[in-house]
Inverse folding.
């Protein structure tokens, strides 16, 4: 007696293609596209999806979570400063207090819970797909993203010449970390000038990241470490509280904008 | 630095000191500045006013936000910063002015801030205006051709940077060496508080209850600048000492908290008759 039900190869193939085609049809025009599936991007995506906003996360890697799997120096303890531990409470992540105001949790636990929370909230994910360019509308407002499969970029041009596809959205969130890929694309087009990381190191850097989270160009919001690069904020250590709270603030800013548009 | 005066007849005596509260109101007992200044200059009226953002008229908001965004120091090795502020920078400055975001983490050119605040406050000769701010402030030094963080930028108005009290004067050299080592080991975040406690008392940190005493001393320096254009003293134990090291700051403003003999004499004279010497 076999363990599994009988199914043909063609049925498996049809299941994959039909569901993916249906998903892609939805991705073509959505409310918010978030480029980057690290902690700030996932946090923003989860909060928006909980408010019934249609969100797509585009992640260039096969895996989601970005640097949230590990802490500083490749050690997988994540540190979170108060009040960001309240987000861990919401996500059901257990943590320990290291000292007053500073908490620790295993990276794999926190990261997997955040991914799970985003998916359960209804966030759509397009992984192994890389951001290629922005879609611009009137007055250079960002109105979508051009994406392609990540492996295409890794192959020589003479072997692959695969055109990307454009996905439209009301807003884009750049959550690509210190690379600030979307913001850099605007810089390439001469629409913005990015100062890069600030030279100083000050202890209130985490606060500055959260406070600067918001629009950096019409139609484009920045969250997480991309905020540091975009606004030239001081460098900061490997702590994730500001990533989570920046994602949350990015979602708030996006939601207010979308609500205002309606 | 060009204060305006509406009354020449009254321009030689200081009649009032106005202290504008910071944007974030994180330091406790800021209101104690008023009795402190009054005790030094009993004839002068001391006013504590809401933050600079609350002095900006609605119709000025965009222009002030734009000026503040342009006052950022993005390259500390350049005396003048040549850049067009971003949409997001303007948006951030507007939110700070309106109290929707907190100030902090950005470095501003103190001289440009002075100019912006001057246009908002329109300082008078007989009134010393002092802006307490949560912004980090620097001025460009011709000695080594780079910007340096400041606790105070004396001018019209004078600016006292509250995070500057923690960040500008240098901590003990050994602190930086150990901190650098910890960061290389990836343990900077976890052990920073332990490191700080091993240097306890040798520098001021955020939320330190003693900070208010330093703020009072800096406000005093600003008033002395308004009266004499010479706010600083070279003696380390004097409250008018311009400290570049945390240990000197603590000594002059907290441990000693006194004036040197010369400045005690000068204050005694100014106390009864706060005449403006310029």
């Amino acid at each position: 007696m076999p363990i599994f039900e009988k199914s043909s190869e063609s049925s498996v193939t049809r299941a994959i293609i039909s569901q993916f085609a249906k998903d892609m049809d939805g991705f073509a025009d959505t409310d918010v596209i978030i480029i980057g599936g690290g902690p700030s991007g996932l946090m923003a995506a989860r909060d928006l999806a909980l408010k019934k906003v249609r969100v797509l996360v585009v992640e260039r890697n096969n895996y989601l979570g970005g640097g949230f799997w590990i802490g500083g120096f490749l050690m997988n303890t994540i540190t979170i400063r108060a009040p960001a531990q309240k987000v861990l409470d919401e996500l059901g992540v257990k943590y320990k207090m290291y000292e007053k105001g500073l908490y620790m949790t295993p990276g794999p636990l926190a990261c997997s819970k955040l991914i799970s929370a985003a998916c359960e909230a209804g966030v759509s994910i397009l992984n192994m797909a890389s951001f290629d360019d922005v879609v611009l509308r009137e007055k250079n407002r960002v109105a979508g993203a051009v994406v392609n499969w990540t492996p295409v970029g890794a192959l020589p041009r003479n072997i692959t010449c695969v055109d990307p596809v454009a996905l439209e959205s009301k807003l884009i969130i750049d959550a690509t970390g210190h690379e600030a890929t979307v913001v850099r694309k605007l810089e390439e087009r001469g629409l913005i000038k990015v100062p890069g990381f600030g030279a100083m190191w000050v202890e209130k850097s985490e606060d500055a990241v959260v406070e600067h989270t918001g629009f950096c160009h019409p139609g484009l919001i920045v969250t997480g470490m991309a905020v540091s690069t975009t606004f030239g904020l001081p460098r900061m250590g490997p702590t994730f509280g500001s990533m989570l709270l920046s994602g949350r603030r990015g979602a708030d800013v996006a939601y207010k904008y979308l609500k205002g548009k309606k | 630095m060009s204060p305006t005066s509406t009354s020449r007849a009254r321009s030689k005596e200081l009649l009032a000191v106005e202290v504008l509260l910071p944007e974030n109101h994180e330091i406790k007992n800021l209101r104690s500045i008023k009795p402190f200044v009054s005790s030094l200059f009993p004839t002068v009226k001391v006013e504590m006013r809401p933050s600079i953002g609350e002095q900006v008229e609605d119709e000025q908001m965009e222009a002030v936000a734009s000026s503040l965004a342009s006052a950022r120091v993005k390259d500390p090795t350049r005396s003048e910063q040549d850049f067009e502020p971003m949409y997001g920078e303007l948006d951030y400055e507007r939110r700070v002015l309106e109290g929707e975001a907190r100030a902090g983490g950005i470095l501003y050119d103190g001289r440009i801030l002075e100019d912006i605040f001057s246009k908002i406050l329109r300082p008078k000769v007989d009134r010393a205006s002092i802006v307490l701010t949560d912004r980090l402030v620097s001025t460009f030094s011709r000695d080594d051709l780079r910007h340096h963080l400041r606790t105070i930028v004396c001018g019209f108005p004078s600016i006292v940077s509250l995070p500057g009290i923690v960040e500008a004067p240098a901590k003990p050299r050994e602190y930086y060496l150990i901190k650098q080592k910890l960061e290389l080991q990836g343990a900077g975040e976890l052990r920073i508080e332990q490191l700080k406690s091993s240097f306890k008392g040798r520098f001021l940190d955020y939320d330190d209850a003693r900070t208010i005493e330093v703020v009072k001393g800096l406000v005093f320096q600003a008033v002395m600048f308004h009266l004499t254009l010479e706010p600083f003293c070279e003696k380390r134990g004097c409250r008018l000492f311009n400290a570049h090291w945390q240990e000197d700051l603590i000594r002059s403003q907290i441990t000693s908290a006194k004036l040197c003999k010369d400045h005690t004499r000068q204050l005694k004279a100014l106390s009864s008759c706060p005449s403006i010497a310029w």
Observations:
- The first helix of chain B runs from residue 33 to 40.
- The CA atoms of residues 15 and 242 of chain B lie 26 Å apart.
- The beta strands of chain B are 16-20, 45-49, 107-109, 127-133, 136-141, 146-150, 152-153, 158-161.
- Chain B is about 40% helix and 15% strand.
